[in-house]
Amino acid sequence: MDLKIEKSYWKKGYKNVVGLDEAGRGPLAGPVYAASVVIIYYKIKKINTSDLKIWQEIKFLTKDSKKMSPSSREHVFNLIKKCPVIEFAYASVDQKIIDKINIEKASHLAMKKSLDLLSKKIKFNLSKTILLLDGNRIMNPNLKIKFQQKAIIKGDNKIISISLASIIAKVMRDKKMFFWDKKYPKYKFAIHKGYPTLLHFKMLKKYGPCNLHRFSYKPVIESMKKHG
Predict the structure, then answer these.
(1) pLDDT tens digit string along 23-49?
(2) How far is CA 154 from the centre of its chain?
(3) pLDDT in tens, 190-200
(4) Which residue among 22, 87, 132, 163 is least enclosed by CB atoms within 10 Å?
């Protein structure tokens, strides 16, 4: 994946082109994660040979996280952590808040939290920063985002900074679901990660929901009815 879109914004005078994406809108259980990624353009020109190899491998391997295997996502994430031209942050919103405010608002809140964390690493100039979001909507106006935003449909398949955010969010969410699998082993969260798979429906039918489930979701509501 190349830097075509980022370069077009750099030429327009934007110093910080921030890619944002989330993981976990579709599951019936667990948190939603989001990540913010900035590729620091001036560091690319000064990159040394060993770091250049890392950066080139990242560009070669990166694509929409949904099209990557778990091991490939993990590998790219480890490369991201070593790459000096990339700064990132991630954050999550748990299932209780998802039930309170709905998944779209929760996804945007997770993005806002990740952006706030990233802003502690990078000093964003208000007029020279643009946020690129995967999807068809910018962040909720109630979050009072000061930066210019642009929503891009299938951005995680077109723009490397969004794709990297997608990978980070997915890897970190999966790690969290492995953690929850140890606390709720009978639901097998390590296998389905909370998504509405046949296995997950089978476990819901057998045991009913646990505290990790999203109680505002229809399949979970139906399961509650059956289990009293």
Answers:
(1) 999 999 999 999 999 999 889 989 999
(2) 14
(3) 999 999 999 99
(4) 87
Query: Are 40 and 86 a contacting pair, CB within 8 Å?
Result: yes
Residue 100 burial (10 A CB sphere; 0-12, 13-18, 19+): exposed
Do residues 31 and 39 make contact, with C-beta atoms less than 8 angstroms apart? no
| CATH H-level, domain 4-183: superfamily | Ribonuclease H-like superfamily/Ribonuclease H (3.30.420.10)
Separation between Cα atoms, residue 33 and residue 1, nearest integer Å:
23
Instruction: Give pTM, 2 decimals.
Output: 0.96
Bridge partners of residue 132, in order along the sequence:
19, 150
Q: Are 20 and 131 in contact (CB under 8 A)?
A: yes
Question: Which amino acid is residue 10, in one-letter code?
Answer: W
pLDDT for res 228: 61
**In the chain, domain spans:** 4-183
Q: What is the largest CA-CA distance in the chain?
A: 63
